Amino acid sequence: MSLLDSWTRGEHSTDGMTHPTYRKGSGPGVVVIHEIPGLTDKVIGFGEEVVAAGFTVVMPHLFGDAAGSMSAGAVAKVLPKLCVSREFTVLATGETSPIAAWTRSLARDLHAELGGPGVGALGMCFTGGFALAMMVDSSVVAPVLCQPSLPFAVGRARGADLNLSPADLATVKERAAGGCEVLGLRYRKDGAVGTRFDTLSRELGGAFLRVDLEGKGHSTVTEHRSPEAVARVLGFFEEKLRG
């Protein structure tokens, strides 16, 4: 029996890109975007927590296996493909990954269906900054960045970069100034995040709600799940989508 058997499988297409999606729950919408190596058992488990909190969760399946587990072999299998994929920007600075157009479209359609003030969006690790890119669209009112790790923090410039084009960054800053807050979570000693939390604090000011967890973990809501991190995420969604 697959962990996804209780989820409804669909797909979303825009601008020539199509990816499967898995949906479950009721209430305001939240898009949960998985990390490397794919839609793992721990990501699905986190999605179930968001569903249990009273939200409609849509999990896109962007790469890797579905319902598998985290392993070095699984990471090694998928990482080279992502590094050459046109949908993702893994090293360049000052650029938004092209997949953002697809994730924004998904969020926009979910909001149009469910109504309300907007939808939540959460990315993690490789996709951690995608929620920030999705915030360019007004449908996203509760963006959450879990240990954002693109571009890969090789060198000072990449470690500080937000994986956004100048135009998208300007829009994000405008929305933040208008009251759209951004929640960011990481383990304090996680080198994969680089210094981009400092960049976010500088660019967004008080609109960036920064959570620095103690310890040496990486995956704040999945593999190295922090109850504090999960509680902060669920509380943020509750406040922004229903409160």
From TrEMBL:
Residues 26-138 form the Dienelactone hydrolase domain. Transmembrane segments: none annotated. GO terms for molecular function: hydrolase activity. Residues 1-23 are annotated as: Disordered. Keywords: Hydrolase. This is Dienelactone hydrolase family protein. It comes from Nocardioides luti.
